[in-house]
Amino acid sequence: MIRARIAAWFRPPFLGLAAGLSLTLAAGAGHAQDLPFDLAGNWQVEEIDGTPVLDGVDVQLDLSSGGTAGGSTGCNTMFGQVKVSGGVLKIGPLAVTRKACPPAVMEQERKLLEVIGAVADYRKEDGALVLLSAAGGAVMRLSLRP
Fold it and tell me: How far apart are CA 133 and CA 2, in angstroms?
């Protein structure tokens, strides 16, 4: 009898949560924007705000045509959204794991996340992807990973 009361008490909120989550996911799925074909891909970050990535630190940005962004800061994993709307490129908001790494790698990660938040446009340059701020300045340079 106690088990039946506990089961009845927990079931409705859980079912409501699951139904709400399903509706949220279904509603969000229809709003994913396709990225331009030359932007989607798995990119190796070479420079952050004009500074080369630290030697031996693998920094990646994966942009999918379905509107998701992910990758590695060189220390932590990041994931979120990417979209182009009204001629403006927006990466984020990004969720990032919180693993600790050496101070230089953590500083590079901080700068990476800062400049990703400032991205507003991009251009291709000699096969590289250059992410630009709203003012038009290069904030990140990337090459397509094989």
Answer: 61
pLDDT tens digits for 92-146?
Answer: 999 999 999 999 999 999 999 999 999 999 999 988 999 999 999 999 999 999 8
Q: Global pTM? A: 0.73
* Whole-number Å distance between alpha carbons of 32 and 100: 32
* First-last CA distance in the chain: 61
DSSP structural state of residue 105: H
Q: Cα–Cα–Cα angle for 95, 69, 136, nearest 5°?
A: 100
For residue 31, what pLDDT is reported?
42
Query: Do you know the residue count of the chain?
Result: 146
- List Cα–Cα distances, 62 to 15, 56, 68, 78, in angstroms: 34, 19, 8, 10
d(CA 59, CA 72) in angstroms, rounded, equals: 5
